[in-house]
Design a protein that fits this description.
Length: 195
Amino acid sequence: MTTNARSARHVTRPQATRRGPTLEMVLLTCPDTAQATLISESFGLVVVDGAGIRTAHENLLVDGATVLSEGLGERAMQIHLQRIVGSYIGSAHGAGQFYSRAVTEARDATAKAANNLRDEDIDGPVGFTGNAQRKREFAADMGLQAYSLRMAAEGAVAAYEEIVGEAWKPFDRPVENPGRTLDRKATEVQMAAFG
C-alpha cells in the first residue's frame, strides 16, 4: 500500500480576521463640518462646536494617558488606547450608518408626499407636521449626533497618534471557526444525504 505524500503535509490557511470600522469609514458615513452647519441652519438647530468636541476628546485621552503612564508600560498603554479609540470609532460609525438610513427614509417619505395621488402621505391639518417633515427633522437630529461623534472619534485618533507615536489602526479580530461557513455546512449536509 502506498501513501500519498501530499496527505502527510498539513496545509495551514491564513487566519481569517474580522476588521473593525476605520476612521475612513466614519468620515464616509458621518457629516463633515460644512454639512453639519448646513443641517443646523436649514432646520433651525444649534450649531455644534465640532472643533471644541475634537479638542476636548483629544485632551481627555492625552491627560488620562499621562496619569496612567505611571502604572502602565508602553505596550499596555498602546493596547488600552487601542480599545478606547476603537470604541469611539465604532460609536461614530454606528451613528453614521443610522444617519444614512434616516436620510434614506426621509427622502423616500418626501418623494411619496410629493405625489398628489397618495392620500396616506398627505400632510396633516395646518399646524401639525406630516410624516415626511418628521422624518426630515429626525434625520437632521441624527446628522448632528453623527457629526458630534465623528469629531470625538477624530480627537481620539489624534490623541492615540500623539501618545503612541503611530497612526491608529483597527484591531483585527480572529473569526471564530472560519472554516465552518454556511455554504460549507450546507455542502456537508447535502453530501451526507448521498450516504
